UniProtKB/TrEMBL annotation:
Listed name of the protein: tRNA dimethylallyltransferase
Keyword Transcription regulation: no
Binding, ATP: G14, P15, T16, A17, I18, G19, K20, T21
Site residues (Interaction with substrate tRNA), renumbered to this chain: S105, R127
Pfam families cross-referenced by the UniProt entry: IPPT
Length: 305
């Protein structure tokens, strides 16, 4: 075991289907460590195939935490994850100074590494109303509303992401203050140093890997998994790529072929948003997805000296 007076979290980030799980397992095995999953879609036990949950062999290769530990019927926010993940990391650091974290959910990674800004509680009916407005009128009216209420937020958040727009709007409406006024960008003190490793590839390679993964999901039974979840399609956990497209197919709004092509297209768009998020973080050191693991371990060791 590495002898060090400091505790570390090695965070593996990057777009979907780039190989984060495989690298995290290799690093966990090398450092005799355990893995914190920061993939918000993999928290739910009913959604295994469509969220690319690690296989049994992968889960057996190194201890994992925060994978399929919740039901889609349970509320589990990014704030809940921050609290529980920090608690687990502190526990693991009692016996090993190194913990590995992997995931493509940028906000959830940030929650652990930097902490979240505080937002006051607002009336939940505001979000319900905004969601209905989005379903009936689309995203553009909501974007225009946010632009008028909080221009700074309009210019800084992922404006094409309905969840982000609705979240900003509900804070503006519920508090009477701009969403951006609650963004302090002040980091919480953590009892560990974070070493962030990003995996990258040329865009055609990423897109090809995504297309292959979706085809494999279909072969592995994604259609049957989505059909079993159809009664719960309105739950927030299922408003996600891989399921909502198949729900539209079950409803008769598209062919299966079109639904699968939409899953691939929307996953590619998701990967693009992931890269946009992570590239804003200067603390990430990027490696090509085919980089030999020993080179990455050498870099990590150099950051621990």
């Amino acid at each position: 075991m590495l002898k060090t007076s400091r505790n570390f979290v090695i965070a593996i980030v990057g777009p979907t289907a780039i190989g984060k799980t495989a690298l995290s397992i290799k690093l966990a095995q090398h450092f005799n460590s355990e893995i914190i999953s920061a993939d918000s879609r993999q928290f739910f036990k009913e959604m295994a195939i469509g969220t690319a949950v690690p296989s049994k062999e992968e889960l057996d290769a190194a201890p994992h935490h925060f994978i399929q530990h919740k039901s889609i019927k349970e509320h589990f926010s990014v704030g809940d994850f921050e609290r529980d993940a920090i608690s687990k990391i502190e526990e693991l650091h009692q016996t090993n100074p190194i913990v590995v974290m992997a995931g493509g959910s940028g906000l959830y990674v940030k929650a652990v590494t930097h902490g979240l800004d505080y937002f006051p509680e607002v009336d939940p009916t505001i979000r319900t109303t905004l969601n209905l407005q989005f379903e009936n009128e689309g995203l553009i009216p909501l974007q225009e509303q946010l632009k008028s209420l909080d221009l700074d937020a309009f210019n800084s958040i992922a404006i094409d992401n309905p969840k982000r727009v609705i979240r900003a709007l509900e804070i503006c409406i519920g508090t009477g203050q701009p969403y951006s006024s609650f963004l302090t960008n002040s980091e919480k003190n953590r009892a560990f140093k974070t070493i962030q490793i990003g995996l990258k590839a040329d865009r055609p390679i990423i897109y090809d890997r995504i297309n292959q993964r979706v085809d494999m999901m279909i072969e592995n039974g994604l259609l049957e998994e989505a059909k079993a979840l159809l009664p719960y399609k309105d739950l927030n956990a299922l408003n996600t790529v891989g399921y909502k497209e198949l729900f539209a197919y079950f409803k008769g709004d598209s062919t299966l072929e079109f639904a699968i092509s939409e899953i691939k297209k929307n996953t590619r768009r998701f990967a693009k948003r992931q890269l946009t998020w992570f590239r804003k973080d200067d603390s990430i050191t990027w490696f090509d997805y085919e980089t030999d693991v020993d080179s990455i371990i050498d870099y990590i060791n150099s950051q621990m000296e």
